[in-house]
Design brief:
By secondary structure, this protein is of the alpha/beta class. Helix content is 30%, strand content 17%. The protein has 2 domains: 379 residues, Metallo-dependent phosphatases (Purple Acid Phosphatase, chain A, domain 2, 4-Layer Sandwich), CATH 3.60.21; 104 residues, no CATH class. The strands form 3 sheets. It has an 8-stranded mixed beta sheet, with helices on one face.
Length: 522
């Protein structure tokens, strides 16, 4: 604990809220993560093969999501295997203070994932375990992609890793996930004749699970073969029983809901009076919107979370690839709703998040990483190069000023802490020395095109940018704006800290602390 406290103290002094350098701008030294990568191949969402392999998302929206039916089969098979009936995990954390990591949306297998690893190993020293919150493997959760996207990057993390699946893990029917985390054999295939019903059309077009390459899988498992690394979770949803705290993980499938059996289980484990943290594949609050997570037989997950008898103090979800925190007042208490999806995939823009007011949360109490201004500046530089429009570039100071004007708040970092040098090595763009920023017509139109400012006519640029421009954008150079959570329980207080990974060597040595919250567990 002492080392993490010192790391947090240092991290406060070097974060993106202090200086441009802390955000990773003008990176002078590439991080050591490059040496960890198995190759220089970059994952891309732009290839037709990747998009076609990910088609189950669209099929589930058009013809119905089979996740609930398939999950029931997996859970029935696990019960027949004799797992704990409550799906309870009891790691050995001793009787005193303890800590663990939460990292979301990890599995691209390229620079954006490996950039998180050095900081994870530094902050993870002495932690009891790690939880991957959503999307362990992109694009389809295949068992044959776990080597370079799970076993290799975390081979030196010497504690167990648990996970809740994300929508991409479900694209192969959860076969890869269940094999790795539950040691479960594949479900017996069910053959059905073709029909013109929605389920029949879906079955014809649905991505089929890959057949495991057994020699390759056996070799991959040797990377995490130490006794201290071994753990088998009972099902795709579970409860981790800790001193004074329960960690409850749920499986939200492809569309973001849970089945009736899982709902009954969740109500049962939530009846325990101890404080709880929910880990979910999709966040309940995200981008100033509320997603309560429906339960198949009625009601919502958030109704359970908000029930005072359930005693939830936080709900952490992946799926969106950045960090957000919404402290929502529920009665006479506050529940921390957190998005933690910055563990290894492309970065979802934060500059498209409007001024926050959802759930009664005031904008000044909302936190995000990257800062909206840094997000706007980075995407301006990215698309300046792709579209060959030099005027589109906005320096970090210009991004901060524009977003603070649009949102109506004070810039979260002092303007003038850097020289405005563009992020990508070798890029050319206007360079502005520190000082006050005067907003020009060029800057306004650049922000509008990139979704940071509204258009003078009705056009949902912000949502379009989030849904398509972010998802079709990826890069292999700093700053990456990745993040992970360090969660600790010490002297009756729960602390949730968000540490950043920029891909620059200085931030690997001293991970920036971007946000923290302390919650009494009395």
């Amino acid at each position: 604990m002492v080392d993490v406290e010192r790391a947090a103290a240092r991290g406060r002094r070097v974060s993106s809220r202090v200086s441009e350098e802390g955000a990773g701008w003008s990176c002078q030294e590439m991080g050591a993560f490059q040496a960890l990568r198995p190759n220089e191949v970059s994952f891309s969402w732009l290839t037709p093969r990747t998009l076609w392999r990910s088609r189950n998302e669209i099929l589930a929206q058009l013809f119905g999501d089979p996740s609930n039916e398939v999950r029931r089969r997996w859970v029935a098979a696990r019960r027949e295997h004799g797992v704990d009936p409550d799906f309870r995990i009891k790691p050995d954390v001793g009787s005193g203070d303890y800590s663990f990591l939460v990292v979301g949306d990890t599995g691209e297998g390229d620079a954006s994932q490996y950039a998180v690893v050095p900081g994870l190993l530094t902050l993870g020293a002495g932690t009891a375990f790690t939880v991957v919150a959503s999307d362990v493997i992109y694009p389809t959760g295949s068992v044959n992609e776990y080597d370079d996207k799970f076993f290799r990057p975390y081979k030196d993390y010497t504690a167990p890793i648990y996970a809740v699946p994300g929508n991409h893990d479900w694209y192969d029917g959860l076969g890869g996930f269940m094999r790795v985390f539950c040691e479960a054999p594949a479900l017996e295939a069910r053959r059905r004749g073709f029909s013109l019903s929605p389920s029949g059309v879906r079955g014809l077009l649905w991505t089929k699970p890959d057949t495991a390459d057994e020699p390759k899988f056996a070799e991959a498992m040797t990377r995490r073969s130490l006794p201290a690394q071994q753990a088998v979770q009972p099902a795709p949803y579970w409860v981790i029983d800790l001193p004074g705290l329960l960690l409850v993980g749920i499986d939200t499938g492809i569309k973001g809901g849970i089945d009736r059996d899982q709902g009954a289980w969740l109500r049962q484990v939530s009846a325990d009076p101890r404080p709880k943290i929910l880990i979910t594949g999709k966040p309940i609050y995200d981008r100033n919107e509320y997603h309560p997570c429906p339960i198949e037989d009625g009601g919502t997950v958030d109704e359970i979370v908000r029930d005072p008898a359930s005693n939830y103090v936080a709900a952490i979800g992946g799926d969106t690839h950045n960090y957000q925190r919404y402290p929502v007042k529920v009665g006479d208490r506050v529940i921390q709703y957190i998005v933690s999806g910055g563990g290894g995939a492309f970065m979802h823009a934060t500059h498209t998040i409007p001024r926050v007011d959802v759930g009664g949360v005031h904008e000044d109490d909302f936190k995000c990483y990257p800062l909206r201004g840094d997000s706007l500046s980075f995407y301006s530089n990215l698309y300046r190069g792709r579209w060959r429009l030099r005027w589109l570039y906005l320096s970090p100071d210009e991004g901060l000023t524009l977003m603070s004007r649009q949102i109506g708040n004070t810039p979260p970092r002092p303007v003038g802490t850097g020289d405005g040098t563009p992020a990508s090595p070798g890029a050319t763009a206007p360079v502005r020395q520190g000082g006050p920023v005067r907003i020009t017509a060029r800057m306004r139109w650049a922000a509008r095109i990139l979704g940071g400012w509204p258009m003078p006519f009705r056009l949902p640029v912000g949502r379009t940018f989030h849904r398509w421009f972010s998802e079709l954008s990826d890069w292999d150079t700093p700053p990456f704006f990745k993040s992970l959570l360090h969660v600790s329980v010490q002297d009756g207080t729960l602390r949730i800290r968000c540490f950043a990974a920029t891909g620059c060597r200085p931030q690997e040595i001293e991970p920036p602390l971007e946000d923290e919250v302390a919650i009494p567990l009395t």
